[in-house]
C-alpha cells in the first residue's frame, strides 16, 4: 500500500537533515507506527507521503501512485490528520464535515457508516464552532474529516500527543475499529507505550530508522538480560547502581530501575549486586529479571547508533 | 521535625462565570519535595498552576506560595519561583549565553553572579561548544535541559514545570529527571505536570485532579495500594475514567 525507498529531506538549503535515507513498506490493512521523539522526522515523512512536501531524494509510492508525479491521485485517496489542528475554527462541526465531504465530491450520508461511532459523540455539539471545541472533541472531528471521503490509507500525525491516558486509550480503540474495516493506517507517536498497539513499528531517531519490525520481534531482539531493581530510596539507588562495577547500563523506569550487566552470567551478577547494595545500606532491595519494553529497546538502539 | 511548607492552599477556587475551573482544592507541598500535579485534560490543572504562580487571582479560598499571599503578594511570588513549560521556555533567536544572561538579569542577579554561574551551568550541561549558538538551532532535548537550568538559575524556592518532557527522547527524558533530582536535593521544591505515567513514579507525592477537584493525593506507592492498582497509569485511569469534563 505504501512503499518508501531511500527518501531523504533537508531544510534550510541542506543545513538540516530531517529524513535520512529512509525505506519501509506498509501492507494493505496494516496498522503501522512511526515511533520517535520530536525531530525524528515523522512529520516530514507524512508530509512527503501525502504529497505536501517534495523529497530531496528517493522514491515513494502510495497505492501504487508516485508521490511526486501522481500527487493528484494520492490526494483523492488518502486521509491526513496533521499534528496541529487544521480545520476551519470559525465553521461549525457540521459545516466542517460537509465542507470536506464536498471537496471530495461526496456527502456525509454516503460514508456515514465509517464515521458513525466517532460522530455520535460529536453530534450534541454539531452547531458549535470547531474553534470552541475541547481538545478531545477537536481530535475526533479532525479524524471524521480525514475519513469522510473513505480513504484507503489514513495518515495520523501524533494524534495522541498531549492527550491524557483515558482519551489515548479511547483513541486507540477507534483506530482498531477502523483497521477492522480494512483501512491501512500509518500513525506516529512519541509515546513508546503505544508502540505495542501497532502491528509493526519503525523506531525513529534524528531522521533515521533504528529498527523496523513487529513490537514483539523488536523486544525479542534485545540482546541482554534485563533486571529490574528497587529499594526504599530510589534516587540514591540510581546513583549507586551506576557506580556498580558490573553495570553496563542503568535507567530509571517508573517504579523500578532497569539494569544490564557487563558479565555474561546474570545470576552471578545479581548475587554480587545484592551484596553491593547491602554494603551501601539499601533496604527492601528487590532484584528480578524482567522483560524489556519497547522503550528499553529504543534506548539500547539509540546508544548503539551514537557509538557507531 | 516538621518539614517546611512552601505551598499551602485552602479551598482554593477559580470560577469563570458559572464554570468552576478549580474547585476548592486544599493541599500542602514541602520544601525539597517533588510534587506531581496530575489530572485529565480539562481537569483544571493549568488554571490552578496560574493561580499558584501569581498570574491569576482566585475567586475564593486562600493560599501562600513561598510564604507570600496569593492575592496581595503576587510580585513577590513571581520573584521566588521558576517556571518552564514545553511551549514556552527560552528565546530561540538569542544565543544560549544571552538567554542565561537575560533571565539572570530579569531575576535581579548581578553581572558578576551571572558570569560565574553561567560558566558553571554551561560546563555542567556540556554546552561549551554551542554557548554562542542560537537556542533555536539546538535539539529539543538540549533546549529543555537548558530551559530547566535557566528556570532554577536564581535558586527559586519552587519551580513549576508544565509538561517539561513532552516529545523528548527517552534518554534525554531521564537526564532531565536527573536535573530535577539535583535541584530537589538542593532544597528547591519541584511542582511538575506530566502525561508520562512512569514519571509519576519519580515524584515523592502525586495529586490527581478530576473535574476541578483533587480526587487523590499520596505517594505513588500508597496510591497504588489504595486503588488496588498495578501501576500509576491504572490509578489514573480509574480516577479519570468517570470525568465529566474533558479538554
| Coarse shape of chain B | globular
Report how far the terminal alpha carbons of chain A are from each other: 33 Å
The CATH superfamily of the largest domain in chain A bears the name: P-loop containing nucleotide triphosphate hydrolases
Counted by DSSP, the helix tally of chain B is 9
- The secondary-structure element order of chain B is EEEHEEHEHHHEHEHEEHH
The profile of the biggest β sheet of chain A is: 6 strands, mixed
Oligomer designation:
heterodimer
Rg for CA atoms of chain A:
23 Å
Write out the strand line-up for the largest beta sheet of chain A, numbering strands in chain order.
6-7-8-3-9-10
Largest binding interface between chains: A-B, 34 and 38 residues
- What pattern of helices and strands is seen along the backbone of chain A? EEEHEEHEHHHEHEEEHEHEEHEH
What is the second-level CATH architecture of the largest domain in chain A? 3-Layer(aba) Sandwich
Low-confidence stretches of chain B: none
Q: How many H/I helical runs of chain A?
A: 10
Fraction of residues in β-strands of chain B: 25-35%
In what range is the share of β-strand residues of chain A?
25-35%
Described by strand count, sense and barrel closure, the largest sheet of chain B is: 6 strands, mixed
Overall, the morphology of chain A is elongated
- Unreliable runs of chain A, pLDDT <50, ≥5 residues? none
Structural features, described:
The complex is a heterodimer of chains A (about 300) and B (about 250). Chain A has about 300 residues and is α/β, with parallel strands linked by helices. Chain A has 2 domains: about 220 residues, Rossmann fold; about 70 residues, Lrp/AsnC effector binding domain/regulation of amino acid metabolism (RAM) domain (Alpha-Beta Plaits, 2-Layer Sandwich). Helix content of chain A is about 35%, strand content about 25%. Chain A contains 10 helices and 14 strands. In chain A, strand 9 and strand 10 form a beta hairpin. In chain A, helix 4 runs antiparallel to helix 5. The longest helix of chain A is centred in the middle third of the chain and has 16 residues. The mean pLDDT of chain A is about 95. In chain B, the strands form 2 sheets. In chain B, strands 6-7-8-3-9-10 form a 6-stranded mixed β-sheet, sandwiched between helices. The longest helix of chain B is centred in the C-terminal third of the chain and has 16 residues. Chain B is globular and about 50 Å long. Classes of the chains: A alpha/beta (about 300), B alpha/beta (about 250). Chains A and B meet through helix 5, helix 6, strand 12 and helix 10 of A and helix 6, helix 7 and helix 9 of B.
Amino acid at each position: 500500500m505504501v512503499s518508501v525507498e531511500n527518501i531523504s529531506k533537508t531544510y534550510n538549503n541542506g543545513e538540516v537533515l530531517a529524513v535520512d535515507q529512509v525505506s519501509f513498506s506498509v501492507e494493505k490493512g496494516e496498522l503501522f507506527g512511526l515511533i520517535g521523539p520530536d525531530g525524528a522526522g515523522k512529520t516530514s515523512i507524512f508530509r512527503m507521503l501525502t504529497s505536501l512536501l517534495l523529497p530531496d531524494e528517493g522514491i515513494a509510492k502510495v497505492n501504487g501512485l508516485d508521490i511526486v508525479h501522481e500527487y493528484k491521485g494520492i490526494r483523492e485517496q488518502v486521509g491526513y490528520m496533521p499534528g496541529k489542528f487544521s480545520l476551519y475554527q470559525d465553521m461549525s462541526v457540521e459545516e466542517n464535515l460537509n465542507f470536506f465531504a464536498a471537496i471530495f465530491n461526496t456527502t456525509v450520508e454516503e460514508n456515514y457508516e465509517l464515521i458513525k461511532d466517532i460522530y455520535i459523540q460529536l453530534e450534541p455539539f454539531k452547531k458549535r464552532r470547531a474553534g470552541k471545541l475541547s481538545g478531545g472533541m477537536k481530535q475526533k472531528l479532525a479524524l471524521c474529516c480525514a475519513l469522510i471521503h473513505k480513504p484507503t490509507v489514513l495518515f495520523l500525525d501524533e494524534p495522541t500527543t498531549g492527550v491524557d491516558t483515558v482519551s489515548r486509550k479511547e483513541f486507540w480503540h477507534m483506530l482498531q475499529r477502523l483497521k477492522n474495516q480494512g483501512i491501512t493506517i500509518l500513525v506516529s507517536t512519541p509515546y513508546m507505550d503505544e508502540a505495542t498497539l501497532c502491528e509493526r513499528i519503525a523506531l525513529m531517531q534524528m531522521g533515521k530508522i533504528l529498527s523496523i519490525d513487529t513490537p514483539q520481534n523488536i523486544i525479542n531482539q534485545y540482546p541482554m538480560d534485563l533486571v529490574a531493581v528497587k529499594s526504599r530510596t530510589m534516587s540514591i539507588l540510581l546513583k549507586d547502581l551506576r557506580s556498580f562495577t558490573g553495570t553496563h547500563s542503568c535507567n530509571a523506569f517508573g517504579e523500578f530501575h532497569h539494569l544490564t550487566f557487563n558479565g555474561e552470567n546474570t545470576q552471578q551478577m545479581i548475587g554480587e549486586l545484592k551484596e553491593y547494595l547491602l554494603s551501601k545500606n539499601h533496604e527492601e532491595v528487590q532484584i528480578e529479571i524482567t522483560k524489556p519494553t519497547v522503550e528499553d529497546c529504543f534506548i539500547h538502539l539509540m546508544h548503539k547508533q551514537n557509538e557507531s | 521535625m516538621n518539614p517546611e511548607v512552601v505551598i499551602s492552599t485552602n479551598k482554593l477556587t477559580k470560577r469563570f462565570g458559572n464554570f468552576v475551573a478549580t474547585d476548592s482544592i486544599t493541599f500542602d507541598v514541602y520544601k525539597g519535595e517533588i510534587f506531581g500535579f496530575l489530572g485529565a485534560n480539562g481537569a483544571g490543572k493549568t488554571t490552578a498552576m496560574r493561580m499558584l504562580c501569581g498570574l491569576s487571582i482566585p475567586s475564593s479560598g486562600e493560599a501562600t506560595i513561598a510564604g507570600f499571599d496569593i492575592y496581595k503578594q503576587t510580585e513577590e511570588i513571581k520573584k521566588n519561583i521558576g517556571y518552564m513549560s514545553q511551549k514556552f521556555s527560552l528565546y530561540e533567536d538569542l544565543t544560549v549565553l544571552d538567554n542565561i544572561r537575560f533571565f539572570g538579569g530579569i531575576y535581579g542577579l548581578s553581572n558578576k553572579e551571572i558570569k560565574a554561574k553561567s560558566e558553571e551551568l554551561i560546563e555542567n550541561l556540556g554546552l561549551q561548544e554551542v554557548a554562542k549558538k542560537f537556542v533555536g538551532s539546538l535539539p529539543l532535548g538540549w533546549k529543555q535541559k537548558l530551559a530547566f537550568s535557566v528556570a532554577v538559575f536564581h535558586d527559586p524556592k519552587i519551580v513549576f514545570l508544565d509538561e517539561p518532557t513532552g516529545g523528548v527522547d527517552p534518554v534525554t527524558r531521564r537526564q532531565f529527571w536527573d536535573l530535577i533530582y539535583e535541584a530537589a536535593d538542593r532544597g528547591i521544591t519541584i511542582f511538575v505536570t506530566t502525561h508520562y505515567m512512569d514519571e509519576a513514579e519519580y515524584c515523592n507525592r502525586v495529586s490527581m485532579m478530576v473535574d476541578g477537584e483533587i480526587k487523590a493525593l499520596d505517594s505513588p506507592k500508597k496510591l497504588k495500594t489504595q486503588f488496588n492498582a498495578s501501576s500509576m497509569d491504572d490509578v489514573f485511569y480509574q480516577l479519570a475514567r468517570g470525568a465529566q469534563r474533558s479538554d
